Amino acid sequence: MITLTSYAAVSMILFSLGVIGVIARRNIFVIYMSIELMLNGINLFLMTFARYHFNMDAQVISIMVIAIAAAEAAIFLSVIILLFRSKRSLDTDIFTTLKQGGK
């Protein structure tokens, strides 16, 4: 039988993998996917406790987070495309060159 602890463990593993991906990788697209993995871990955690407490509030919050993440995905992917077109790389060192005025 799958218990509350099992769902909580899976959500913590997802969140931890996302944190490791953000810290360890230099590719901006992989960092973005790791952030999305962290959001999904948080959503699973909210849904788990909403189901456990028979409360719909956390489910509504999770749906709002999913909707905001969809809008954020469109903006972030367009920024990634613009960075790739201008620098031909998705390395995070691009941000230091942008801060210096693009020299």
Structure write-up:
With 103 residues, the protein is mostly helical. The chain has a single domain, classed as Helix Hairpins. The chain is 82% helix and 0% strand. The chain has four helices and no strands. The longest helix has 31 residues. The model has no long low-confidence stretch (mean pLDDT 85).
Q: What is the count of DSSP helices, taking H or I runs of 4+ residues?
A: 4
- Quote the CATH topology: Helix Hairpins
**Biggest sheet, in brief?**
none
Report helical residue fraction.
Answer: over 70%
CATH architecture field: Orthogonal Bundle
- State the order of secondary-structure elements, H for helix, E for strand: HHHH
* Strand count: 0
User: What value does the average pLDDT take?
Assistant: 85
Give unreliable regions as ranges. Answer: none
Shape: elongated
Radius of gyration: 17 Å
Number of separate structural domains: 1
What structural class should be given to the helix and strand makeup? mainly alpha
List the topology elements.
Layout: H1 4-24, H2 28-53, H3 57-87, H4 94-99
Helix pairs in contact: 1-2, 2-3
Outline of this structure?
The chain is mainly α.
Structure characteristics:
Helix Hairpins, 103 residues, single chain, mainly alpha
